[in-house]
Amino acid sequence: MRAGNLDRIIEIQRRTTGLDLYGTPVETWTAFATMRAQLLKNATDDREDARGRTTDAVLIFRTYYLAGLSLNDRLLYEGQQFEITGITEIGRRVGMDVTCERVGP
């Protein structure tokens, strides 16, 4: 993996629980890691499911290995939130490919 190819900035966010002004637990997203990545694939996926016909944005990023990354985390890229749907390790903890889909409209 060449560092010159890592030309995008992504932020990995992790779900945490905090308290609001009334002491009620609320779930929030906090920054877990900010890293450089290479955008391998930027595609749209048209499909029909229980929600009807939908169009999803599918992105695949290649980046250095990050221990602790899981499918429960999410990715922030260019101000948009993406749900992580797949993680593929490259080599022996050298790098990883992160597959994600856009959350929301």
Structure description:
The protein has strands at 8-19, 25-49, 52-64, 74-77, 80-90, 95-102. The chain is mainly beta. A hairpin with a 2-residue loop joins strand 4 and strand 5 (80-90).
Q: Indicate the radius of gyration in whole angstroms.
A: 16 Å
Determine the N-to-C terminus distance. Answer: 33 Å
- Please list the strands of the largest sheet in the order they lie side by side: 1-2-3-6-5-4
The strand count comes to 6
Write the H/E string, N to C.
EEEEEE
Low-pLDDT segments, ≥5 res? none
Most strands sheet: 6 strands, antiparallel, barrel
Secondary-structure-derived class:
mainly beta
Count the DSSP helices.
Answer: 0
Strand content range: over 45%
**In percent, how helical is the residue content?**
under 10%
Average pLDDT figure: 88
Write down the overall geometry: globular
Keywords:
six-stranded antiparallel β-barrel, 6 strands, mainly beta, single chain, 0% helix, 105 residues
Topology:
Elements: E1 8-19, E2 25-49, E3 52-64, E4 74-77, E5 80-90, E6 95-102
Antiparallel strand pairs: 1-2, 1-4, 2-3, 3-6, 4-5, 5-6
Summarize the structure.
With 105 residues, the chain is mainly β. The chain has strands at residues 8-19, 25-49, 52-64, 74-77, 80-90, 95-102. The termini are far apart.
